Amino acid sequence: xxxxxxxxxxxxxxxRAFMPRFERAVMGAADGVLANTELxxxxxxxxxxxxxxxxxxxxxxxxxLPPDGVEPHDGLLISYIGTLYGNRSLQVTLEALRLHIDRxxxxxxxxLLQVAGHAExxxxxxxxxxxxxxxxxxxxxxxxxxxxxxxxxxxxxxDLALVLAQGQHLxxxxxxxxxxxxxIPTLVVADAGSAxxxxxxxxxxxxxxxxDAGAIAQAFERxxxxxxxxxxxxxxxxxxxxxxxxxxxxxxxxG
Length: 255
What we know:
41% of the residues lie in helices and 15% in strands. By secondary structure, the chain is α/β, with parallel strands linked by helices.
């Protein structure tokens, strides 16, 4: 698992008491550990120098790719596919969309942010309130949970995919690999130096700080003008068959 540094601010009292001990027991008993972010692998290797730690990144299954046929559309279509919870908030993204609309005089129908996935109670209310306060009703569509295949089809026809990774220093959302794997221009909202920011940069996505509405608005404007240079080129290193082959070599020849 992706273990953060445990501190008295995060988690329940039981988790703070139990998880560090559990981590030490697991790491001490393991012959080796696989970590799916480079930053986590580095942290664990430093903390447990006598336990081999290897980084094997997550990826995307090319067999899940939806058909190539993409319906043509006008304007800017932005998609966020995922759950709204914890630090994963679209508040600043909505503020950025308002900025883009005002700066470029974007009429309704020329830009749309579509959000698909579960939104836990308070986060759904916060999202709807922000849409109302920013007068974005004509520019935002909340689609709710969708089957995986339908969500991927929706994502594939998008001009820009959003990946939220606020406050997750050692984690990389799996959605990043889906977006990159389909060659979708991808904007990742993540803290500088985090595992998500590093991985997104390495894979050709654009990274912005969680509170930087201006930078997000600039990305919207670039993509809307079709002038963006952030379309990633999917590489074999994030496709499951190649990851499986790499992992097979590691397990058969751990030395």
